[in-house]
Design goal:
Layout (H helix, E strand, L loop, with lengths): L1 H25 L3 H23 L18 H19 L1 H22 L11 H19 L1
Helix pairs in contact: 1-2, 1-3, 2-3, 3-4, 4-5
């Protein structure tokens, strides 16, 4: 139950953040906005680390596959693509397509056991769920 609530909170925060970032870009430019977003995220994360855990900050470099250390680079491109999609499609349409892409890619990651994730068997119900999500997007945009 806690995981469900946290996932719902993540969705809420991502939607609000996307709109906030798009509004900041209206008065600035893409890469200044992206830099500000990640600078403030860094400051918030460092502050929380300082007050909450104080575990070894450099332990992130102990990760087995150093490729995973580039998650922040991906984060910069996530911010870029979210801002661009919201500014051209609006928050609702952009979010639907972003969630569809997340669902499809996450299912592929699980199905093939990529990036150290436990491999899960393909289930037709997952494919049906994706098709229903696409149908929901079509219905949402037609009604």
């Amino acid at each position: 139950m806690v995981g469900i609530l946290i996932a719902l909170l993540a969705g809420l925060l991502m939607s609000v953040q996307g709109v906030f970032n798009t509004r900041v870009m209206d008065s600035s430019n893409m890469w200044a906005t992206n830099s500000w977003v990640h600078l403030t995220a860094f400051a918030a994360s460092l502050s929380i680390w300082f007050f909450a855990s104080r575990e070894n900050l450099l332990s992130v470099f102990n990760v087995s596959n150093k490729l995973y250390l580039f998650g922040g680079v991906i984060g910069a491109f996530i911010t870029f693509t979210v801002i661009k999609s919201i500014s051209s499609l609006g928050p609702a349409n952009a979010t639907m397509l972003i969630l569809l892409a997340q669902l499809v890619i996450s299912c592929l990651i699980e199905s093939f056991g990529l990036f150290g994730i436990e491999k899960m068997c393909f289930e037709w119900s997952k494919l049906i769920g994706v098709v229903l999500m696409i149908a929901g997007i079509v219905v949402f945009n037609k009604l």
